[in-house]
């Protein structure tokens, strides 16, 4: 009575592995687009149009720049494009598609008095530069021959507490050990975030 | 449900004996009469059926290293999305409106308003505690597999709270694991 059910063949996107129509909700629609234009043009007809327009723009740009000057101008627009897309990839999306408010990458250094003589230096924000806090605290402790530890702050953020007052030396140390951290993104706190850069 | 799911999450993997295999086959057949004709291909009697146990009382039914069904505790067996895409008519369908798609795709449960708004479709016959396929407005393929928390009639009348629990959705841990090896 029931004939054999035939399995439906589904076209899964080669990039995000979702069924092709869901690529716009996938992790990286921009990467899926070229794949989609080739393999599933009927699903996203406006993509085809977009791709054609882009190609036309690129060609006209190239022609223009070749007319005005040589190689130099050609390199600049294409590199700007790739830089733009890679920045987008890093943008983290919360469920709901909202973009997580990007905390500016900065290192905040604060001095807190512990006893009347003693104080601690709190370093916050190193993890935003991709630095492992446990390694960082070890290095700091070794360098300044004091205790350093990773402490959980009132928010989820973690910070490094270093015993003693080392705020001035620490700037140099950070920029030397981790060249990714530019001096201008280190801030001291002097009674309300005085943007005393580095 | 399957937000985080990788090979390390498997606590045990056993080949089941024939009697258990028959029982599993029978319950799947009762649950999804539409699959009867292809049952032989999907769960052949001769091929060993492997049952994979995972934390949170989760069991996977695996054939030839491909997970086909899963169940929580002793609940009904539910097909994986990949299987459902191949045989879309075996389960009842609910449809959510477009705005809900991105939430469902991050594992959110399906709230009643998503099903009762224009763009949402409810199948009146569906009861509580039943597995359903969730489709999206304007899309041809299933978006997720859910377990109803309220019957379709209640969803329509009460229109508040969680209507369907999101068990398995596109691009979750189980979807990413096409084969277990």
UniProtKB/TrEMBL annotation, chain A:
Q: Name one GO molecular function term.
A: translation initiation factor activity
Q: What is the lineage of its organism?
A: Eukaryota, Viridiplantae, Streptophyta, Embryophyta, Tracheophyta
The keyword GTP-binding belongs to this UniProt entry's keyword annotation: no
Keyword Cytoplasm part of the UniProt annotation: yes
- Which keywords describe this protein according to UniProt? Cytoplasm, Initiation factor, Protein biosynthesis, Ribonucleoprotein, Ribosomal protein
Where is region (Disordered) located?
A: 67-98
Please list the residue ranges annotated as the SUI1 domain: 107-178
Assembly with partners or alone: Interacts with the 40S ribosomal subunit.
Entry GO CC: cytoplasm; ribonucleoprotein complex; ribosome
Q: What is known of its domains?
A: The SUI1 domain may be involved in RNA binding.
Q: Which family does it belong to?
A: Belongs to the DENR family.
Alphabetized InterPro entries for the sequence: DENR/SUI1_TIF, DENR_C, DENR_eukaryotes, DENR_N, SUI1, SUI1_dom_sf
Fetch the CDD domains from UniProt.
DENR_C
Chief place of localization: cytoplasm
What protein is this chain from?
Translation machinery-associated protein 22
* Matching PROSITE patterns: SUI1
One biological-process term from Gene Ontology? Answer: translation reinitiation
Location(s), subcellular = Cytoplasm
From TrEMBL, chain B:
InterPro entries hit by this protein: MCT-1/Tma20, Pre-PUA, PUA, PUA-like_sf, Uncharacterised_CHP00451
One of the Pfam families matching this protein, by short name: Pre-PUA
* Gene Ontology MF terms: RNA binding
Location of the PUA domain? 92-171
GO cellular component terms, semicolon-separated: cytoplasm
Q: Where in the cell is it found?
A: Cytoplasm
Q: From what superkingdom does this record's organism come?
A: Eukaryota
Which keywords accompany this UniProt record? Cytoplasm
Biological processes per GO annotation: formation of translation preinitiation complex
Q: Which PROSITE patterns match?
A: PUA
- List the protein's name: Pseudouridine synthase and archaeosine transglycosylase domain-containing protein
**Source organism of this protein record:** Arabidopsis lyrata subsp. lyrata (Lyre-leaved rock-cress)
């Amino acid at each position: 009575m029931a004939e054999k059910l035939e399995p439906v063949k589904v076209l899964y996107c080669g990039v995000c592995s979702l069924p092709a129509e869901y690529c716009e909700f996938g992790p990286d629609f921009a990467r899926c687009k070229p794949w989609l234009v080739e393999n599933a043009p009927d699903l996203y007809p406006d993509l085809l149009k977009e791709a054609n327009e882009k190609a036309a723009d690129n060609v006209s740009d190239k022609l223009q720049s070749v007319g005005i000057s040589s190689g130099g101008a050609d390199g600049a627009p294409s590199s700007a494009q790739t830089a733009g897309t890679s920045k987008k990839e890093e943008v983290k999306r919360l469920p709901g598609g909202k973009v997580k408010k990007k905390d500016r990458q900065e290192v905040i250094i604060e001095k807190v008095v512990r006893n009347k003589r003693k104080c601690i230096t709190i370093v916050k924000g190193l993890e935003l530069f991709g630095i492992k806090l446990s390694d960082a605290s070890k290095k700091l402790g070794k360098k300044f021959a004091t205790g350093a530890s990773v402490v959980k702050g009132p928010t989820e953020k973690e910070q490094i507490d270093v015993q003693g007052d080392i705020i001035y030396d620490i700037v140099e140390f950070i920029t030397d050990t981790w060249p990714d951290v530019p001096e201008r993104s280190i801030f001291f706190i002097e009674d309300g975030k005085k943007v005393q850069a580095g | 449900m399957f937000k985080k799911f990788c090979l390390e999450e498997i606590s045990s993997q056993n080949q089941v004996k024939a009697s258990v295999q028959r029982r599993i086959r029978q319950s799947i057949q009762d649950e999804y009469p539409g699959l009867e004709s292809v049952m032989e291909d999907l769960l052949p009697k001769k091929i060993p059926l492997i049952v994979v146990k995972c934390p949170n009382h989760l069991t996977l039914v695996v054939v030839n290293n491909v997970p086909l069904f899963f169940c929580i505790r002793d609940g009904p067996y539910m097909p994986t999305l990949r299987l459902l895409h191949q045989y879309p008519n075996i389960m009842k369908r609910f449809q959510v409106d477009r705005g809900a798609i991105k939430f469902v795709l991050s594992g959110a449960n399906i709230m009643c308003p998503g099903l009762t708004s224009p763009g949402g479709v409810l199948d009146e016959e569906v009861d509580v505690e039943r597995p359903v396929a969730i489709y999206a407005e304007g899309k041809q393929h299933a978006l997720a597999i859910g377990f109803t928390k309220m019957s379709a009639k209640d969803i329509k009348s009460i229109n508040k709270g969680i209507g369907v629990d999101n068990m398995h959705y596109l691009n979750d841990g189980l979807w990413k694991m096409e084969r277990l090896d």
